[in-house]
Amino acid sequence: MNESTEPGGGRSSYLSFMLAGEEYAVGLLRVREIIEHRPVTRVPGMPAAVQGVINLRGSVVPVVDLAVKFGLPPRPITRWSCFVIVEVALDGQQTVLGLLTDTVREVLELGPADIEPPPAFGTRVRLEFLRGMGRHNDTFILLLDLDRLLSLEELLKLTAATDEAAAPAAPAPAAQAAAPAPEAPGNG
Prior knowledge:
The protein is mostly beta strands. It is 15% helix and 40% strand. It has four helices and eleven strands. It is globular.
């Protein structure tokens, strides 16, 4: 899938962000928005990298801690911490996820000559999670492949948890059957 190619020049736009001192980027057309960090509701049974879910204007959005996904300890939350809300493909359908990042950097324009294959060693990220290495201003940026970042099993757990969290809670059966007890006659 092509990220966000501009006609004519073959250049693509990427949003870059920092995580544990390294710069990463995702295709700009996959980014829905960037929001400030807010409390996350934990969901039992989720993979370790999934922090939980947030409510985004009435929609339940799973949040992935990229540091944990890459085998690092969880990052401290700072005033610059934010969620990059992205779309990933799951069985042919677009699923919305929040990626916890240390800070967002900039929008980059990279052409085919600016992108190298992923290195065979020296990164914290497994090779299957990378689209390549972008060269920008004499530095390299790891370009993430969002569709491979989480396994199918992890994404299926996420969507099931999202569906459960979005469903309205049914009243408990005991509460439906319980009627107020009549008052006992008193001596009063």
